[in-house]
Write a structure and sequence with these properties.
52% of the residues lie in helices and 12% in strands. By secondary structure, it is of the alpha+beta class. It folds into two domains: 179 residues, no CATH class; 236 residues, no CATH class. The two termini are 30 Å apart.
Length: 439
């Protein structure tokens, strides 16, 4: 009978206790791996979302809020920027491109981005990876819409479908109303980018301006009508308040942000002018200027400090699982004295008994680590799918190989170490003491 056979039979004889110990190690390993993997994946996903934008101009309260609202669609920006101000910004420097955007509408919870049609050809949601069409074509006319891949998938939409937008985004959309007078035609569907932009819909600025101009004039008309005499004839609301692009005024042409990219050398994403233009624009106190990549870096630094608390908790759980192995092995030693004594009588040396007990605890660690690794892979995949559907962040769902190696080896080493104390006790105990009657 080999030593491994002896160890395996010993574990089978205590199947329930062994299974509980393996489960504790597995949960600890899975928890720690999911925390580490999601931490790195989330940071990478946020960096992907800023794409090739150098500067973002908005009227939000702070640069970080501007980036979260304007590029990650956390909420609709609260304050608009006048068209005159947007044009002033566009003409203030020879930008590589300057794209005004308007946020505020949604479709079944997904944000609608109103912008010039050039947005889909110039903005790269992931730096170096421009938008690509999976079906249909780009925007050519007003009241057309191109869908992000996640929107098309979750709502089963195809080119040719007609949809109505809702006024308001995020929580505000629940109390909003549909722009039922103007249906948008789906003309294109974008390929997945692995960024938050997969859950957005893209249409023209004029489409959004026309809808909101008509609604504003209807409200104003309703106010005037309340002062007219009863029975006075009025045209229908639709005819009276119909607006086209030529009727738009400066009060109608509002935007919530301007995406800016400075000239760069071919193959480079950096520009020597970023700092100078950033300082120049932020002297204007009526706007907020943000460097998206920098703000996301700061956000990750803030979140990272908190994140390490969860990682520390995972390490504590892992150590506690090693302690459970120690307690389980030590508590079983009193009942296994005769087993150890028989091995010694049959010629097993004290070192061999020591090695058998350490091997037993090591096998518990190996089994727990492997089960934990499988649980972590499944957990990361589930978390990635959930976050992709809820907030559009594609985290990849994979386990970082380096983190997995460190955690698995660490779990096995702790388990082996946990077996040293009871093994040392067995090593020091004489055969005569092992053979004394069990009380």
């Amino acid at each position: 009978m080999t030593d491994m056979t002896i160890v395996l039979r010993s574990l089978r004889a205590r199947a329930l206790a062994s299974s509980i110990t393996v489960a504790m190690v597995a949960v600890a390993v899975a928890l720690l791996l999911v925390l580490l993997s999601m931490r790195e994946a989330a940071a990478a996903a946020f960096r992907r979302g800023t794409g090739n934008v150098h500067l973002l101009v908005s009227a939000d309260a702070s640069p970080l809020v501007a980036v979260l609202n304007g590029m990650f669609y956390a909420n609709a920006p609260a304050n608009p920027i006048s068209w005159a101000k947007a044009q002033e910004i566009q003409g203030s420097f020879p930008w590589q491109w300057a794209i005004p955007t308007q946020l505020g509408d949604s479709y079944r919870g997904s944000p609608v981005v109103a912008a010039p049609a050039a947005l889909l050809r110039t903005f790269e949601p992931v730096a170096g990876q421009p938008f690509a069409l999976a079906a249909g074509r780009h925007l050519e006319h007003d009241f057309e819409v191109v869908l992000g891949s996640e929107v098309a998938r979750s709502h089963s939409l195809l080119p040719g479908a007609k949809i109505a937008m809702t006024h308001g985004a995020g929580a505000a959309a629940q109390g909003g109303h549909e722009h039922a007078d103007h249906l948008y035609e789906v003309v294109g569907i974008l390929s997945p980018t692995g960024s938050v932009h997969d859950r957005a819909l893209f249409t023209t600025l004029e489409s959004s301006w026309i809808i909101h101009a008509e609604e504003r004039r209807e409200r104003e008309g309703a106010g005037e009508e309340s002062h007219t005499e009863a029975g006075h004839h009025h045209e229908s609301d639709h005819d009276h308040h119909h607006v086209d692009a030529a009727d738009l005024t400066d009060a109608d042409r509002l935007v919530t942000g301007v995406l800016l990219r400075l000239p760069t050398r071919t193959g480079s994403d950096a520009s020597a002018s970023i700092a100078a233009q950033f300082d120049r624009l932020r002297r204007d106190t009526s706007i907020t200027v943000a460097q998206p990549a920098q703000q996301i870096g700061r956000l990750m630094a803030i979140v990272g400090d908190i994140d390490w608390l969860f990682v520390a908790m995972g390490v504590v759980v892992l150590v506690s699982s090693a302690i459970s192995i120690l307690l389980a092995t030590a508590s079983s030693m009193e009942l296994r004295r005769r087993q150890v004594a028989i091995l010694r009588v049959l010629g097993a040396s004290a070192w061999r008994v020591f090695a058998l007990l350490v091997t037993e605890s090591t096998l518990l660690g190996v089994a727990g680590a492997l089960v934990g690794l499988a649980l972590a892979i499944a957990g990361c995949a589930a978390a990635s799918a959930l976050l992709a559907s809820k907030i559009g962040l594609a985290l990849g769902g994979g386990i970082d190989a380096r983190s997995a190696s460190i955690v698995v080896v660490g779990a096995i080493a702790l388990s082996a170490l946990a077996g040293v104390v009871p093994a040392a006790k067995a090593y020091r105990t004489t055969i005569r003491e092992h053979l004394r009657p069990i009380a």
